[in-house]
Amino acid sequence: WANSVGASKCGGQIPRIYSIGAAGQFNSSAVASAINQAKSLGRLVLASAGSENSVTPYYPGADPNAFGISDTDNNDRRAYYSNTNTAIDLAAPGHGITTTTIEPTLYTTVTNSSVSVGVAAGAAARVWAKYPTFTQATALDSSTQE
Asked: Which residues contact 111 (CB under 8 A, 6 or more apart)?
């Protein structure tokens, strides 16, 4: 949907960052196709690498056109449950994060890579706000980093 809609359906802006919090061992051709299309449109796809303490690649984080995101704990180390494999591109806080929920509590503490994907997407949005000419290729080129 986000690949095909214009700015009028997305708060006046064309979507640039997608965050996918779901993860599984099997690759979906439909999701892979959407990620590939997003990349061809110049959009950044951040996706969960899974929370099973496994070396098995989990999708869509293992998709070569997405950035696979794993979790760090509150000591900024790999979270004990976070997957580890070569498809992971970035780790972000995802352990013991307080977030909003529905009533009656309004807040809860969560722990999983779906949370770390949201944190990474927020960081990416801040970078793009400061450097609007950056592209996906720029993100992978260490010579452009300050």
From this structure: 51, 71, 79, 81, 94, 95, 96, 97
Cβ atoms of residues 120 and 69 within 8 Å = yes
In terms of Cα–Cα distance, which of 76, 107, 108, 67 is closest to 94?
76
Cα–Cα nearest to 60, from 84, 28, 17: 28
Q: pLDDT tens-digit profile of 99-134?
A: 888 888 899 998 888 899 999 999 999 998 898 888
Residues shown for the chain:
146
Nearest to 73 by CA among 95, 50, 55: 95
φ/ψ region of 72 (left if φ > 0, alpha if ψ in -120 to 50, else beta) reads beta
DSSP 97-144: EEEE-STTTSEEEE-SHHHHHHHHHHHHHHHHHH-TT--HHHHH-GGG
**Gyration radius from the chain CA atoms:** 16
Question: What does pTM read for this prediction?
Answer: 0.86
Pick left, alpha or beta for residue 6 (phi over 0 → left; psi -120 to 50 → alpha; otherwise beta). Answer: beta
